Amino acid sequence: MRRVILAEEKLGDLIRRWGAERRVVAPVRRGAVEFEPIASADAICTDYRNTRLPAKRLFFQPSEALLRFDFKAAAEQQVAECPADMHPTVLFGVRPCEARSLTLLDRVFLGKDYRDPYYASRRKATAIVVLACSSFAPSCFCTSVGGGPADRTGADLFLWDDSAAFVVDVVTDRGEALLADLALPDANAETLERIDGAAAEVAAAMHGVAGLDQIGPEATDAFDDPCWQTIGERCLACAACSFLCPTCHCFDIQDEVFGETGRRVRNYDACTFPLFTLHASGHNPRPDKLQRLRQRLLHKFAYFPENFGALACVGCGRCIRACPAGNDIRQWLRSLIGVCAQRTGKQRE
Amino acid sequence: MTNPYLPLPTRVEAIRTETDDRTLKTFVLRFLRSEDAAQFRYRPGQFAEISLVGRGEAPIGMASSPTEGGTLAFTINRAGIVTTAIHNLRADDLLGVRGPLGNGFPIEQLEGRNLVIIGGGFAFTTLRSLAVYAMAPENRTRFGRLTIIYGARRPGLLLYKQELEAWQRRDDIEVAITVDAADGEWSGRVGFVPAVAKQVAPSSENAFALVCGPPVMIKYTLPVLAELGFASERILLSLEMRMKCGIGVCGRCNIGPKYVCKDGPVFSLAELNELPQEY
Questions:
Q1: I need a surface site. Which of A186, B52, B173, B256 has the fewest CB within 10 A?
Q2: pLDDT at A347 (0 to 100)
């Protein structure tokens, strides 16, 4: 992997070059910091910890039309798919947890039997430029779930803010193409030691959760453990956590009709909502809050790992910051780990 | 790769009201495009998302058998907004079909075996598909003895009545039709499905049991099958769940790590015993 130096004043040129052919989306501060299309590097905010909304919404949109209806058309033409094309884009300045989350969503939306064309086209059209973390929020715990402030998973280019310059790790061929024709000097050993050391310090200082790998099959054995009652009681089922989660991918599909036209729309949905699993017959496999919260946690920390070999959490901490009841998923996970450890211990006896 | 959310257009060729309470109707659908008909390969036990443009979709098991030729049949219970709107359709109206979805019955495993098909109420639809498939002249010799036990609460709620009568006249299969409570017209068996299964006592030797019905029927049928010697790997059940995408993405039909739409809807009892009781 090439590690080169990009002087800070050259960033503007680079963004301009990218912008000539592509859309550039970057963090912009307007009260909260969010990802927005930008016209110049001046709009970019690099001294942020994380955006309020995850970058997920650029690939898997909160609400999007899948199909268009025209009731006046001939029988075979009444339903048409909405085009899934996407303008070539550079997503600049996402945090490592964000890039990692996209690789997790890939496993769901780009499956071996079915590919979601909307997600797929946006992923294909988008190059990811990650900005390493030089600090962390109290709610960050990426190091506990396999990530870290220097995790390059999902990045095409990986940037380190080194005062007057960026160190640029060229992670993929696509990243290399983003730097085409630019003669950038290699970073020297001293610089690399400094930035890698700083990242290690950030990683070491984070308030993590130890032992998440212990939530395995034991967690489903602990399905009826009283811990879920305690956990469930503290949830308001508002689903703020799910809507802000960069790995939550549940959705609903609804038809909308406007006179003689209409559309089929998919909208974010959440497993913590009571209607989520309600059958038309009235039967609901998860009628209680505790069952739904258990589903949310076990999906991320037991089922997803079983199906895809990775935790469905990147430790961004958005759910912790957004919870109106002040719940901290790390606390829940610690009690779950405790229960699992106890069960494994009992089995050994 | 084609868009998995795009339904294939079909036209309603026939509608049959199945039950005297008019809550179950069978819709026979024909693809508008011959290439869709040629491409749509399914097996008994699979389902499809039936799509009524402007109203939405509902996951419905396929009641037809692939041996029946160019049309598809779905027996639909009028339960919610979409299925009620579908019930109001007439012949020649349009419906979309997204599928086939799900695993279906494991035909390869079932070949050469005796099949014991046990159904209750309107869950009989995909069992009907399997029964017709196994009884088809080109397939009959690929399966051993065929036993069908089917019950409903009362005679008026039995599905596919004419067909059941024809089956009862065949001498190469054993058919036991029962009702929980008879009325004046009924001269057949009276009794709950589990009790009838116990009377019929199909042998478990070289056999698979395929069970679909209301939870209470399944609850009392499973011990009967265990007593008859059916191993949990040889008891197959088909589950229902609320679904949207049908392809394992939208996240609502899972039981533990398994998605009913993609990993199911057919599971063996052994597989279900490994999963949390959340269905």
A1: A186
A2: 56
CA A89 → CA A13, A118, A166, distances in Å?
17, 15, 21
Residue B62: the pLDDT is 97
For B141, residues 6+ apart whose C-beta sits below 8 A from its C-beta are none
Residue type, B91: A
> Whole-angstrom Cα distance, residue A309 to residue A307?
6
> Letter for the amino acid at B43?
R
Distance CA A242, CA A250 (A): 9
- Determine how β-strand B235-238 pairs with β-strand B254-255: unpaired
| pLDDT per position as a tens digit, A9-36 | 899 999 999 999 999 999 999 889 999 9
pLDDT exceeds cutoff 70 at A218: no
The dihedrals phi and psi of B130, each to the nearest 5 degrees, come to -65, -45
pLDDT of residue A93: 95
Q: Which of B53, B249, B255 sits opposite A69 (nearest CB)?
A: B53
| Helix (H) and strand (E) counts in chain B | 8, 15
> Which positions ≥6 away from A90 have C-beta within 8 Å?
A18, A22, A23, A24, A25, A126, A127, A129, A178
> Cis link prior to B265 (omega < 30° from 0)?
yes
- Domains within chain B, CATH numbers bracketed: 8-101 (2.40.30.10), 114-228 (3.40.50.80)
Could you give the C-alpha distances from B42 to A203, B38, B52, B61, B129, in angstroms and in order?
52, 11, 21, 11, 11
Which of A252, A264, A265, A293 has the highest number of chain B CBs within 10 A, making it the mutation to test binding with B?
A: A264
The answer to whether the CB of B176 falls within 8 A of the CB of B194 is no
CB contact under 8 A, A285 and B278: yes
DSSP class of B171: S
User: How confident is the prediction for chain B on average, in pLDDT?
Assistant: 95
